[in-house]
Amino acid sequence: MSLLEVRELHVWFDLQEGRELHAVQGVSFGLDAGERFGLVGESGCGKTTTILGLMGLLPPTASVAGEVLVGGESILAGGESSVRSHRWNDIAMIFQGAMNALNPVKKVLWQIVEPMELHGIADGTQARRMAGDLLEMVGIPASAGERYPHEFSGGMRQRAAIAMALACQPKILLADEPTTALDVMVQAQILELLVGLSNDLGLALVLVTHDLPVVAQVCERAAVMYAGEIVEEGPTEALYHAPRHPYTRLLFAATPDLYGDEAVVSIPGAPPRLDRAIEGCAFRPRCDSSLDRCESEHPEFRAMGAGHRAACHLNDLPGEERAAREGARRAGSAAPAATPGGGAP
Amino acid sequence: MSAVQEPGLTEGLSVQSHAGFLRSVLRERKAAVVGLGIIAFFVVLSVVAPLVVPYSPNAQTCAVFAPPSARHWFGCDDGGIDLLSEIMQGGRISLLIGFTATVVSMILGGGIGIVSGYFGGWVDVTFMRIVDYLLVIPDLAFAMVISEVWGPSVFHVIVVIGILEWSGTARVIRAQVMSVKERVYVKRARAVGAGNGRVIFRHILPQVGPLLIANTVLTIAVAIYLETALAFLGLEDPSTTTWGTILEHAFARAAVSAGAWWAIVPDGIAITLLIMGCFLFGQAIEDALNPRLKVAHLSIRRWTLRTLVGGAAGMGVRPLVGRGPDAI
Amino acid sequence: MRGADYVIKRAGFAVLTIFVAITINFFLFRVLPGNAVADLSRVPRATPQLRHALEVEFGLDKPKWEQYLIYLKQLAHGNMGVSYATQQPVSTLLANDLKNTIPMVAVGTIAAILIGVLTGILSAWRRGSALDHLSTNLAIAFYAFPTQFLGLMLLILFASVLPTSGMMNPFVLGPESLWARLKDIGAHMILPALTVCLTLYGEFTLIMRSSMLETLGEDYVLTARAKGLPDRKIVSRHALRNALLPIATVVAISLGWIVGGAILVEFIFTWPGIGWAMWQAIYQRDYPMLQGGFLVLAVSVIVLNFIADLAYFRLDPRIKE
Questions:
Q1: I need a labelling partner for C88 at 20 to 30 A (CA). Which of A340, B141, B286, C201 fits?
Q2: What is the pLDDT averaged over residues C95-117?
Q3: Class assignment of domain B18-296?
Q4: What's the complex ipTM?
Q5: Is there a contact between B132 and C126 if contact means CB atoms under 8 Å apart?
Q6: Considering only alpha carbons, which residue of chain B is nearest residue A25?
């Protein structure tokens, strides 16, 4: 049994006039202790909602279905009150934008001690000493804990946020775009720190990002999300070298090569709106190799090999034909791929 | 960083059309409709007042402090004048003063805010010092002094309120202009050689428009309040009738001890309603412009759990389209 | 020391604003059309001796810039001139008025802040609930009530129960105990202070509510929720102090407004404070008194603003410029 098991997670948000937005549409994945798992996709595809949803950190307009099992125990089953005792104890989180995740009017050490005292891990001097140790562990002198967040640099703040996440010795760490606002050097240091921590402490790490090189650098396995669904999941290597979904392939192609001066290709168009039912494959309008059946038939999520799964009709074709179709539409002419309202530069 | 398009990121708030924006505010916010309705009611009433007043607002038509009756709905004041007629007449002047003073303060505040924010430098510093002073100065005391020194007249009241109330607008508009100025399309317009006037009128003014409207409506409320307060203190031209002078007369001629509450209450409610209308409408626009009010991470209500249809309890299968058995 | 610069900067700003206030005060009365103080013919019951004394004291026969210097010099010595009406020094009279105004306005304002902050927090926390709707609508109504209307309503409603005029009962003679005197003043203070409180609390509620709503949308509130904190602790430990920050500014900015309301309240309830004195000064064309009263009000607001700046400084560790 996996340490964290997400089964068929759905999240809806109520909109006005009785409409609703189906932000997460049946996401399932699992991971073991010490494993690092990436959740990739463009913004607006439901990555952040997925991990907020699995901790129950949703607004009152949201409704949730599906199960989240931590060590076999279903944590969402009893709503907000049942999930609360698991927060930070079992699952901790590092938020997007280190800038605002820390309370500006409280000292950093206090903010690390707070969850320890709340969950009965430690209190008083002992808790303060433990918090100091955590700061040292992430590379901040313990004495800096007496300072306020605004006195820290962006990188230090993210380190402090990581120390805070480790306060209750959680088994699972969710990191939502942990390096987005940081410069490249600091990004690398933070990622290195996260990898080190998951190795040393056996932390299961879920890394949410739109930044593919980050996933390739950190995670053994990853899932690609599009329009609220996981469209492909597998070892990072396989996703990179042998993607079985056009979205994955285009996403990697859109990543600038650090050493080459090749023009960056971005995927034309924008993800579909999720407040209405989608017929067929959600990616079809932006796909460069779609088939006729993609318009009406929703592709099934199927095994492609060892631990590799994808949801694409192309996979039903023989290997050579598939290879021939890849990029066919784009190669033919640039025009059809660009949907109206697309954000192509 | 990947070059993947991020459709969620737009350049702050951009307003395509003012009419469209106002329509959406009115559609989505009940308070805006109520507020605009109240303002419209009083404006229409003021326009048609001379045609519909039941009695003369200047001549005695009933007994002194006659209580409300079928013929005089709001009763009569200390001079035997029908209060309903007097309030309708007074509203004309109060609204005129409130609206005109607001126009004066909007032109001053909007103009100074735009100039200050757009040009910066010593112009900005000078204006902002004046604004700082006006923000801390006790409005009513200042208005009292000026009205007294210049002598009581409707014109003076308008000028006094106009020069007192522009500072808040100037500050808000200045901040907005400074942020709009940094946006890409404005920089682009300047780079291709658009003149200052053109940039201000074509690019900046349209962006600060909704905020200016909200500010205008809120300033009307303040102007009406100041007018009635000055009149109540006897600093209005004694020959005019406004909502403020009606309260002043009632108080000065001992309506309280005479038990003539009707000389006070309807008039007071009229002032309160109009101020409330301005507040509801102006605040609704401001709230609609404030993206920070949309998210709340804490609420007494909670997210809810749903069971998926068509599956075993708790472990549902996606209802619309099937997924393979190895999906889990 | 953290923030010494900030304090010095704000203090410097306060001093500068006071100087501006003094200068504008001079111009209002001497230079602008009306030339109120210089026009001694407008002084009621003035004897030739008094006129002459005034002329010499304020240098009214000298050019304006010299008058300005004399005005500054006199002010520096605490001399604000002599009341036309009572022939007593304006500064003495105003000091006494201020002593009466402060407790009444302070009681009303502090009560308004407490009620406003409390209802604002509850409203934001329970956004969309019946309590929120009730509290918000009530706040809007009280915000919209003109001070004079609310005062008159309270006057009508409580005229038979509470004293409605003055600060103490002038007909109670004899050796009273201090306690009885205080009780009398307290009873007289209820209606004016209540009027001040009710006209202010609505605005504070609305501002506190929106400030709290903005704070509840901040990421650190989500962090606090993720830590597993119960709602009450999230509000008291994380949201409250951050949400209170704008309140310090708003109270400071409303001070001018509060003073304006106080003038109306003193006028209605004949409270012998500075607002009442200013109204009387207008009524009696007692320009030195009016000029002095206005200056005292302006300076009080500036000083209180400075205090609010210091409060903000205490609340927000980020300030250290």
A1: B141
A2: 93
A3: mainly alpha
A4: 0.86
A5: no
A6: B318
